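quick q for whoever's on today - can somebody do inverse folding on this one?? i tried earlier but teh output was garbage lol. tokens:
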């Protein structure tokens, strides 16, 4: 089969490493072209790793995040490009403060869609990945990521839309990546208990008790356990954002690979015939385009 092209649209540098990273590493290792599109520069990310809270880092956050992103992309073996919008930050407080002027979530939708359509028409992905309608997590840039990706999926193949943004290209499928699956966390939590170790997920699981498990929406599971080490290397590359002693790294690799060696997706729209459940994002697609 000839090379296929996969494009994942993420809000901030580091999102690509925490959501579907092993899937991308796998498809890249298998000879496909994989492109991460990062919508914003992550300029408003706080330093979440105490070891990186050093003089000079905060002052040059945009450059630091570019360097981290380049390392993460190299760890995953994928290409990466920036769309150039400015991080909206996660508004906190009651009432919530207004979004910063000019930030990504305040940019008119069509302006962001045209920018993404331009990349879609140039890279010509067969499959796109984005977040669900809740953004996977309630950050204004993540919700906007969903809106912009879905609009670009529909507009890119239409010659009437954004005629100055390149020759039309019609992507065939678009997925939501579901990172926070309760059933997975419960399984790992049970393993901690079984091994007589304190369960680091207890608080999260208690908080999630009343929420529907996203597993009910999952249509597609990708076996990618052998790429989990690359995912972790990519996560660690985002050194200001990820605490290597944090909960992300609390679960031994062997448990993850043994108990839950997949990443989860929901087929949101398809223009090809496929049968659910799926185990391949390219299912139903011929590689001759
Ligand atoms: Zn993000």
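ok took a stab at it. sequence:
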């Amino acid at each position: 089969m000839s090379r296929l092209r996969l494009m994942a649209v993420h809000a901030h540098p580091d999102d690509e490493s925490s959501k579907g990273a092993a899937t991308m590493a796998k498809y890249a290792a298998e000879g496909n072209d994989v492109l991460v599109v990062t919508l914003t520069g992550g300029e408003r990310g706080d330093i979440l790793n105490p070891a990186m809270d050093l003089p000079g880092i905060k002052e040059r956050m945009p450059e630091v995040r570019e360097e981290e992103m380049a390392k993460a992309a190299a760890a995953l073996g994928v290409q990466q490009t920036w769309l150039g919008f400015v991080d909206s930050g996660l508004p906190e407080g009651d009432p919530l403060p207004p979004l910063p002027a000019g930030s990504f979530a305040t940019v008119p939708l069509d302006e962001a869609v045209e920018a993404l359509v331009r990349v879609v028409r140039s890279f010509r992905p067969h499959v796109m990945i984005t977040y669900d309608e809740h953004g996977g997590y309630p950050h204004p840039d993540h919700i906007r990521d969903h809106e912009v990706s879905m609009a670009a999926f529909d507009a890119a193949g239409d010659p009437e839309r954004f005629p100055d943004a390149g020759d039309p290209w019609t992507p065939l499928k678009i997925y939501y990546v579901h990172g926070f699956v309760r059933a997975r966390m419960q399984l790992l939590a049970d393993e901690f208990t079984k091994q007589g170790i304190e369960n680091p997920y207890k608080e999260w699981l208690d908080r999630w008790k009343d929420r529907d498990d996203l597993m009910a929406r999952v249509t597609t599971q990708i076996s990618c356990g052998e790429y989990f080490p690359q995912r972790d290397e990519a996560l660690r590359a985002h050194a200001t954002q990820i605490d290597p002693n944090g909960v992300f790294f609390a679960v031994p690799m062997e448990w993850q690979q043994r108990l839950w060696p997949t990443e989860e997706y929901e087929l949101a729209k398809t223009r090809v015939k496929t049968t659910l459940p799926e185990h391949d994002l390219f299912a139903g697609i011929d590689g001759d385009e």
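fwiw The pocket of zinc ion is lined by residues 11-12, 15, 139, 142 (CB under 6 Å). also The chain is about 35% helix and 15% strand. so keep that in mind when u check it
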